[in-house]
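Human: We require from you a standard protein entry with sequence in single-letter code and fold as tokens, and nothing else.

Assistant:
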Amino acid sequence: MKGFFGLPAELMSALGTVLGFALLGRLDYNQQNTLGNWLELIGQVLETNAAQGQLLQARAQGDRLEALEGELAALRQQVAALRQGSTEPTVASDSGGEVKTSPVLSPTAAADSTLAKNTPASGREEGCSRTSR
């Protein structure tokens, strides 16, 4: 069916027209009316389902957008605090509405923290060994 849905709009309209005229000569008026109403019913069911799906998708995207806007506002607050040299904790909420606090480190403290995490306890880099001769 992918090929059918990939047809250009003009070709799809022409195909429907040809099929409609092909059925005219084989069906009496009552049969044409019944078949036409039945095909319209199928179309209405598909349109109703698609419209509801689009509505729910748009709402979900709106909810995600609101969550991202909240995260962006929290990040802007953190950047402003960093620019002011503040070490006060900032408050941000995740998409679930829970409030999280995190300290804002000065650039020097952040570098020291990163260095401490990446330096092995022995004082040497991992994977390097010294041999003396």
In short: The chain is about 65% helix and 5% strand. Residues 8-108 form one domain. The first helix runs from residue 2 to 5. Strands lie at 90-93, 99-102.
